Amino acid sequence: MVIMAASTSSLTFQPILERIAEEIGRTPGRGRPADYIPALAACDPRRFGMAVAELDGSVYGVGDWREPFSTQSITKVFTLALDLAREGDELWEHVGREPSGNPFNSLIQLEYENGIPRNPFINAGALVVTDRLQTRTGDASGELLAFLRAESGNPTLDFDKDVAASESAHGDRNAALAHFMASYGNIDNPVPALLDQYFRQCSVTASCADLALATTFLARHGIRADGTRLLTRSQAKQVNAVMLTCGTYDAAGDFAYRVGLPGKSGVGGGIIAVVPGRCTLCVWSPGLDERGNSVAGVAALDRFTTLTGVSVF
Amino acid sequence: MVIMAASTSSLTFQPILERIAEEIGRTPGRGRPADYIPALAACDPRRFGMAVAELDGSVYGVGDWREPFSTQSITKVFTLALDLAREGDELWEHVGREPSGNPFNSLIQLEYENGIPRNPFINAGALVVTDRLQTRTGDASGELLAFLRAESGNPTLDFDKDVAASESAHGDRNAALAHFMASYGNIDNPVPALLDQYFRQCSVTASCADLALATTFLARHGIRADGTRLLTRSQAKQVNAVMLTCGTYDAAGDFAYRVGLPGKSGVGGGIIAVVPGRCTLCVWSPGLDERGNSVAGVAALDRFTTLTGVSVF
Amino acid sequence: MVIMAASTSSLTFQPILERIAEEIGRTPGRGRPADYIPALAACDPRRFGMAVAELDGSVYGVGDWREPFSTQSITKVFTLALDLAREGDELWEHVGREPSGNPFNSLIQLEYENGIPRNPFINAGALVVTDRLQTRTGDASGELLAFLRAESGNPTLDFDKDVAASESAHGDRNAALAHFMASYGNIDNPVPALLDQYFRQCSVTASCADLALATTFLARHGIRADGTRLLTRSQAKQVNAVMLTCGTYDAAGDFAYRVGLPGKSGVGGGIIAVVPGRCTLCVWSPGLDERGNSVAGVAALDRFTTLTGVSVF
Amino acid sequence: MVIMAASTSSLTFQPILERIAEEIGRTPGRGRPADYIPALAACDPRRFGMAVAELDGSVYGVGDWREPFSTQSITKVFTLALDLAREGDELWEHVGREPSGNPFNSLIQLEYENGIPRNPFINAGALVVTDRLQTRTGDASGELLAFLRAESGNPTLDFDKDVAASESAHGDRNAALAHFMASYGNIDNPVPALLDQYFRQCSVTASCADLALATTFLARHGIRADGTRLLTRSQAKQVNAVMLTCGTYDAAGDFAYRVGLPGKSGVGGGIIAVVPGRCTLCVWSPGLDERGNSVAGVAALDRFTTLTGVSVF
Prior knowledge:
The structure is a homotetramer.
Chain A: H1 14-26, H2 38-41, E1 49-54, E2 59-63, E3 69-70, H3 75-87, H4 106-112, H5 123-137, H6 140-152, E4 158-159, H7 161-169, H8 172-182, H9 191-202, E5 204-206, H10 208-214, H11 216-219, H12 233-246, H13 252-258, E6 263-265, E7 270-275, E8 279-284, H14 295-308
Antiparallel strand pairs in A: 1-2, 1-8, 3-5, 4-5, 6-7, 7-8
Helix pairs in contact in A: 1-14, 3-5, 3-6, 3-12, 5-8, 5-9, 6-9, 6-10, 7-9, 8-9, 12-13
């Protein structure tokens, strides 16, 4: 269920969203969709949507804000929160929370640091988080789906089986990472079963409206849509901090510099962002820059913080 | 000149500082002072000071907050700001603004990225910034000293010649970095002259009070103590973003997670931090953790943000 | 001690072997057996055997020269020869023939060089060779076994199922390498099937006598025991060259320096060596140095070339 | 063509040299001269010379075999021998004797191995050897020049001051290596003085005839032209082994595979090679392949060993 204008406090940013959409629409150059799997390569880079969700559960947006797209790495935020809620700080013995530097170094860093990935948002780290959630729940991707449906109020939100199969067919690099960490004793589940869970999580399809709503627990310092607490205030701060320093591949510094908000991007072209204590945002446009972030998405968030002055800095 | 309680708005955090100092005083375990040069190794790890400077120029503190110490890498923030003010975005063609990952990789990353260091706060990046400021001013360290004296209101603030000489005597690694970048054409000045400027900057001696005051331009979105503008609002945001993502060596993620403020540490045991739009902090205690950050300093800032709730997240 | 003397030309080096065995017997310090799988860890490091095989097929030795042991990486030489015989220089488009430098760098080099391993004797390279032989024959390990039996004249020579199972149970690092190369398109077979073939090859059990005989085709410039040609003269030279530069892990330079012969070691404690045009040697003693080569084995070969002057240099 | 025939044993290979020169003359494609300094870039890639020196001191050749050229890294062999003769095995505590793998990794390997370069023929290793010879003699390059003049019987052989100055002007990368090793305590002399010695050594100008003669001590197992011993038999074997495994940059395996002789190349287009106990060779042609070895030089040595069968394998 999508809620629009549920309270008087909502729609605050609607004129700003419309101005941004208008500016983006006039801007040529959108980058190129991810092409490592066919399902992503087919996306039209001219698509653009942006949604804001407020703390009271209202959500509004512009453009293709209700159009489902492939969330990809965005779901790493939710899996992290679900596992952190269960095991707390013990998680940080198995995955770090430092930026990873150049992607070129991912494997050498894993070797140098004895199979402990740098943070939960690089693939190696997300595999560890999924592995741990799988051990605790028996169905990591099922937990994720239930959470996303509950928070977004959208019971039709689901995996895309074709995307998951496509990820699996191109999954040798993730298999290498998982086996490599297993050689250090940092993976508990059998690698094929782990990969199956991981690729399903990557395949979730959701809209900007869905994701903005599902992210509001981070703006509410850990409180879910139904008022129950998922994370402690401190844990919510931790997740936001990891998003700011590690959430946009090798462009986290650039994103902090331009946008100045905790954010997490996916190669499907989506980006979520958190204004702590205030609201959340989700933007989508499939064309990517050379570092894997949505060109129009980053531009839109940059404009949003410039126009509203809501940056954390 | 140190100003204490200059307005009614000040002293807000004095009770909190006193509580933190009391807690820190009861805590055993302070890490060990840096030992690569004798001048630092001789420091007593039980020393502790903390200062807060407010936007109106008032400053107050606890413990050894008026005791001068070796600022070391903290001055990288001011050199960055002074050069950014002069050349603007052109600087970013010569130094990146992304976290550097594991320190082990500093040289391989320089090689992989053709002599462009990852950010202005690793030594390689600070050498580039100093080189560029030197080219523009003819006396990079003199510019730095004049700025620090003006902002802190302390005309006795100065270099420590013994520390600079000691740095120079142990300077082979920095010389290697400078020559390596010169081989890619990313250093303009002769390497020995550049190193001389660089080591002088590292040798500045200042107190928590001095540094908290000198940092207020970042909390004031770029405005200096005398009301003139050093940086545009956007540039001030950029410096804060780089501090948050890259300011504490290989612990930036951990610092963001625990403290949640833009900060910059030095191996002399000092740390500065910015609460944008509100105030600045400087803490000092010489004992370091294995990543080079003051143990008591990080703990004190962690307590400060926990007790006051001023984190950016 | 049983000596098998097939012709008048043989036994030339018997007095030298006996002298070496006597010297080795007096030497304390043998290193430690490999301990990553139980089957190897149980070996007694005081065991020592050494055999010489002459071009006419005669073989003789000292100590435990007829005792079967786990050949491990020694079989990489035979798999390389069997594949090179089939596909010729095309192989070198899929695996290099340069030393690999520090083992630490294996993964980064694979990444830097687009999934092409440095040489056929590091694990990544041996996986590629096995993959290609598997594609050509449908049973790479069966081909290897048939070849070893024919050349050694020992029909009981066989795989050790327990060792193969143990390798497989500890096989995550090799699985990571295989998947990583598959992500670059440099592996044809399904990774699990490839690993099964690979681990079987590592598990071959044979004696010094068996292996010295099986290696004589390299001393005969490519001619097998039955007089047929396996490799061209040029290909035999190529295999010898790769053994000299890459045959003893990260100690190839040291081995060339001390022994001065093409050689290949295994973590079971065996080493084969070739005196081109003259004879072959195989030595076995399970205690390893920190680089994975048999301590007594290298010492024995060092003494052999010193006493006989047969080094290639 | 002038042929100097000092004894009846000489001229053995003259017909083969002429055949090789004729074949090379018909072969198009010579690579490109090194272009990092102007003095090398101006060389004509069609130049070609080849000389053989026999153990009795006779020397003969074809083409431009008496034309002086820039020896560059070839002199690393002589500096190594001169230092090894003085300090023996202690040298190997300061420089390794293992191949270095990909050039990309030179700096990371230095860091991983605490400032000990992999072998004496990479630049870092040659800097260490020069540093140690300098400490022992006070004039490393003077020692080198005296040795080369004595062995070649050519008193006009000399440094090229323009080349040395040009190397120095482009010497930032070598300066970086030297300072980096100094930071680990593995360099004794001041870096500028060491670099001066090093660049002079690189600037030696000599002909194929000169270098073939100067190398004969390695074919005579350590005995100089005047009958005195420079190296022990074991040390001469060591130098030959290091040449075979490390003498041709990142193509040592390929060179062993194709040529099968200990050899050392320079970016001036020269290559020396040793047939232990038999003769030495020197070939020169300025066009290089992408790994820095003379295209026509490697081809000529490949043909030589193929036609004569003198490979060590």
